Amino acid sequence: MKPLNIGVIGYGFMGRAHSNAFRKVGNFFPLDRKLVLKAACGRDAAKTKAFADTWGYESTTSDWKELIARDDIDLIDIAAPNNVHAEIAIAAAKGGKMILCEKPLAMNPAEAVKMVAAVEKAKVANMVWYNYRRIPAVTLAKELIDAGRLGKIFHYRAKFLQDWTINADVPQGGAGTWRLDASVAGSGVTGDLLAHCIDTALWLNGGIDSVTAMTETFVKERKHALSGKKQKVLIDDASAFLARFSNGSLATFEATRYARGHKALYTFEINGEHGSLCWDLHDLHRLQFFDHRDAGNVRGWRSIHVSDGDQPYMKHWWVPGLQIGYEHSFVHQVADFVAGLSNGQPAAPTFRDGLATDYVTDAVLKSAKSRRWQNVKSARSK
Amino acid sequence: MKPLNIGVIGYGFMGRAHSNAFRKVGNFFPLDRKLVLKAACGRDAAKTKAFADTWGYESTTSDWKELIARDDIDLIDIAAPNNVHAEIAIAAAKGGKMILCEKPLAMNPAEAVKMVAAVEKAKVANMVWYNYRRIPAVTLAKELIDAGRLGKIFHYRAKFLQDWTINADVPQGGAGTWRLDASVAGSGVTGDLLAHCIDTALWLNGGIDSVTAMTETFVKERKHALSGKKQKVLIDDASAFLARFSNGSLATFEATRYARGHKALYTFEINGEHGSLCWDLHDLHRLQFFDHRDAGNVRGWRSIHVSDGDQPYMKHWWVPGLQIGYEHSFVHQVADFVAGLSNGQPAAPTFRDGLATDYVTDAVLKSAKSRRWQNVKSARSK
Amino acid sequence: MKPLNIGVIGYGFMGRAHSNAFRKVGNFFPLDRKLVLKAACGRDAAKTKAFADTWGYESTTSDWKELIARDDIDLIDIAAPNNVHAEIAIAAAKGGKMILCEKPLAMNPAEAVKMVAAVEKAKVANMVWYNYRRIPAVTLAKELIDAGRLGKIFHYRAKFLQDWTINADVPQGGAGTWRLDASVAGSGVTGDLLAHCIDTALWLNGGIDSVTAMTETFVKERKHALSGKKQKVLIDDASAFLARFSNGSLATFEATRYARGHKALYTFEINGEHGSLCWDLHDLHRLQFFDHRDAGNVRGWRSIHVSDGDQPYMKHWWVPGLQIGYEHSFVHQVADFVAGLSNGQPAAPTFRDGLATDYVTDAVLKSAKSRRWQNVKSARSK
Amino acid sequence: MKPLNIGVIGYGFMGRAHSNAFRKVGNFFPLDRKLVLKAACGRDAAKTKAFADTWGYESTTSDWKELIARDDIDLIDIAAPNNVHAEIAIAAAKGGKMILCEKPLAMNPAEAVKMVAAVEKAKVANMVWYNYRRIPAVTLAKELIDAGRLGKIFHYRAKFLQDWTINADVPQGGAGTWRLDASVAGSGVTGDLLAHCIDTALWLNGGIDSVTAMTETFVKERKHALSGKKQKVLIDDASAFLARFSNGSLATFEATRYARGHKALYTFEINGEHGSLCWDLHDLHRLQFFDHRDAGNVRGWRSIHVSDGDQPYMKHWWVPGLQIGYEHSFVHQVADFVAGLSNGQPAAPTFRDGLATDYVTDAVLKSAKSRRWQNVKSARSK
């Protein structure tokens, strides 16, 4: 079996999630490439070494350019903070590497456009880690929608609620908290959390035409984790918007890190003429489905425990009734990516799909400033 | 419209529940009799008077025999403690009165047999207040079972969990706590709570052949509410049994007043070849239904919000989505009782049905003592 | 006990809900006035008569002015469609009658302002039937918020989802469907459903400063129920808005009659520094409460079954664990209204509170047209 | 780091689950031994080879005695059917190998006693794969009970419901269906499913004194998967029992493969003086906790999303809110087993703990036959 040599950049939360997927996918999915953990790259040499030891990477470096220059690396996995995605990805594309890039694709659409151009010019396989598409319950939702089970769509609503930054002592910047530092993250919950909601929504319900938004920063100043100095907080702590989809449906979206009681409650609901679907990340193995075509007296929301072999991805795991978890969505994404290399159907979301999400988050942030409805650019028309 | 003159005996919890039903049923259900609250009877004259004033009873007495003797009373409603059911009911039957009797029917099957004989001899309309049959979700369960939606039945399980007597300071005897006094209540949770579970089970799943049971009294002594003296507790605090139904299905039943966190959690589940049903009193307006004949990838337990006009009893209430509560089951029972007076189909459960339940609770109590399987007598064969 | 003579105008859904409350409240709540169902008024004489017979009204009329002119009527209950609220209420106030008025208070703020002026000038007791405040779980939410259990508030979100008008054959106008006729209803879901959400929100979370909204009419034409002619639909089928409260919190609101699977799913959630609350009308007897001050390893959303005597209103009903339903909120409202007549604390929401809600719905409708953020007028400053 | 060389026997469902745990544990837990997948053993050479390739076992064999004879194997993992546990385990103990054995420990207590004797004589580390103890929510339950959060225990109830053998065409014997063949499995749901319930119960609530049980075989004959011949079914399809624990609490237990709608619904509930706990395998990442010491008006069942770093095992995985799944319980068991090798506290359940469960299942099967209460032997007294 031909090897697929991987070089990962970043050893944080996402570095672990991706590495686990790379190591594990072959145990459960039939692949025609053998994934090899070739090299790990990170700023801190000691941490990079420890990470490589834990996961079995063969070598380490602190220079990502070196990684790209190596002939024995086929794929660059970008698990580093948002502010370095563009430079690395563009260089990797020029170097002819396949690229997996963490979400959001870029700091802004301008960067993202260049990244898309680079990978499309280089014709390298590319994908963004919007992993939630491949939670089996979410994939099942997609199948039901595509099969017409909902009919004409009237409503979409999504939210992503967390509560980990309510404490004003949480710093900005640094290892675990760079997502609060606008210079590294680009934006706050809009790019971090709403981006997930938007990616799923565009996949399930098509394009968004226009939005009106509001954002808020509840804690105005935070210490920087590295400098220790109080600095103005420039990210959005909370972000909400109304939207109109191209298919005529209306939507509400909301994300925040100030919703007490919710750790990572990403939830979406979609209402159509014939039925509705609802999903939530805190019980990710379930899909709620209402089928109006059931007989009137026994209609009800079905709580589908997505753990059977005839449901997406599940035949590769255990037996009916035994649930999988968060990390498995990454395994599925790798399995589909590898399959896409040879079957002529590149796995989505590609960088171009990631750009589409960036256009929406950009419109959201602009609307929050302008206090006007903002049209959303299309990523489809070049 | 011909009046139906009612005399109630008892002004406690059940006296209120019945009175509310009598007063209210005509506002929501078309009846061909006009219910008249003619007289209230109770031991304490002042309390009886206050009760009559609150509910609009025309007169009061503290002598139930006087009530039975009155020509202008058509129906005797027995809302008094268990130890007086038999005497009153037999006298009322002899007096030619219709009788509604609180559950359990009697202190023991011997009493119950006499009560059945009395009403059947007198040919008076009779019914036991097993009100849960007429929670719309429970009635819907019955309809689905009768329509064959579950197929062959394999399992039945029911429990009734409360937690109000954990505190050893709760007395026995007296107004609110006579259910802990064996001389008044007959038994503890077996007659009080399991009786409800059994009545529903017999209705939904047919007869029970045999049982093996255990009971326990966790608090061995309690003060008597009236005498203030510590007395041995003679009721069962908890009771559980295994059962075999005549249709070949297996069952588990349990009731207790020591299940912390449950106020009145009566729940049943029934599993058949093609589907299953589950209901619980804490969310009484919902029925859970699993239909195995749904397509495999979208099978799931449906949470049916029983509040639509095409669901049992609900067209008489509000609009879809607006739930009714506990008290409405009594209203439905009165509506059906009155309808049964003229349509030739006497409403169940009759006294004979109540006897069937008493035979099961009797077998349960006997098995708990004998530590043997106990056969259950049939109430059908005269 | 001094009588409180009631004349009701309207025999539809709300006429029944109010009448049930008037009849029933004295059975459960100690009142110092005896409610008397004196007269019922409606356009159709036969229907009015049948309604009066069912509920026990002593007399009927089809002329509401006659009702107001009667000396033996103390209170006018307006259960008629929105387009007649103002005229009747202003006349009733001039006639010195107490007034209970269905929600929304008026067709628009201009009317509502006049109604407020009329009752305040006449110094008559007045209240709007926003009944959901008095669902015990909602009242408990209010108590917890007022006790500071949530701390500083960051987020509020509410929605009211129905699905009964998806079928394009549902007519507009007429008895059951006047809510689709803009000339009678004023607006669609904004005045009908969002008004409920807004009333609760203003009560729980204080004033709203500004909103940005969108509305949609999915079915563009419907037959008129009376004329049979197809007419343009002028109401909003769906309405959503973002809001900023005066206390700095952010909110999303949404209502629709096109959310398949939801009959009357009014739900709200409020997130504060120390805790969060969540409630939903489909399980109205439960309140979800997350208390961040619970120990870290056992924190979780508590599902509070609001059926105990130490929870709002519940000591007047049954025993712990036995739930009440939708209709009981009206009973509570009447109990509080009557208590307010003598205790010097008039029950809310008053007409002035109703005006505050009308100002918000007006801003929502204006914003949906202007596509701009709209400031909300205050009902407090005269 | 010193290697821990593993030889696995069996390549089925459990062979996969164990292998996944062995491969993965070092990526997430700090260990002082390096787990090496040394050899895989199975009857079918080709399947064994494929299994070894998938999971990275260095070598294969079809002779388990050869495996035990190898000096470079430290640990024998028995993932083969029940009827070979005893012979292999006893030989492995004699060979001085550590042993991990699938549950139930043996075909009957007689076998289990010998196995316990063998490992205790050989002083080899030993453990039974009752993995559910190490679902984080279950471990948290144990911690809360041990900390006295429930107080005196009154009730325990557990059930394990499946529905995969309702179809009479499911064969007995063979690869996926040996659990229906009594000669291989020993018993049906009693040893397969109830054993899990019992292991957890003994751990959480102490010893069981006596039981009364019933079992049933709904489908009387099934084809054998290998011979194709119809044979009498000798296993129990369903099994239920009442129990009394040494601590005075009462229990109900039930398992079946005929509960339509439940794939693998293992659920337990425990009720104590101060609180209650409830867990279910279909939502394994949640623990329900009722704390009676919460203030009366805000008491409710807390749904604890066990995904935080301060909850058992979770700091090794992702971030709060992101759930793990079924397979992780095996990883935890391996982590604890390896830690137990050096910290002087051997991880439980040991073979002796496994014997305790076998004594209960044996009493259950005997009671079902004798129709009498049966005392349970203690595994503690040698």
Summarize the structure.
Four copies of one chain form a homotetramer. Chain A is α/β, with parallel strands linked by helices.
Features:
382 residues; globular; homotetramer; six-stranded parallel sheet; alpha/beta; Dihydrodipicolinate Reductase, domain 2; 10 helices; nine-stranded mixed sheet; Rossmann fold
- The CATH architecture term of the largest domain in chain A is 2-Layer Sandwich
Strand content of chain A: 25-35%
Stretches with pLDDT under 50, minimum 5 residues of chain A: none
Mean pLDDT of chain A: 97
Largest interface summary? B-D, 41 and 41 residues
Determine the structural class of chain A based on helices, strands and strand pairing. alpha/beta
- What CATH calls the topology of the largest domain in chain A is Dihydrodipicolinate Reductase, domain 2
Helix and strand element order of chain A: EHEHEHEHEHEHEHHEEEEEEEEEHHE
Report the radius of gyration of chain A as a whole number of Å.
21 Å
By DSSP (H or I, 4+ residues per run), the number of helices of chain A equals 10
Basic shape of chain A: globular
CATH class of the largest domain in chain A: Alpha Beta
What topology, given as strand order, has the largest sheet of chain A?
16-15-14-13-7-12-11-8-17
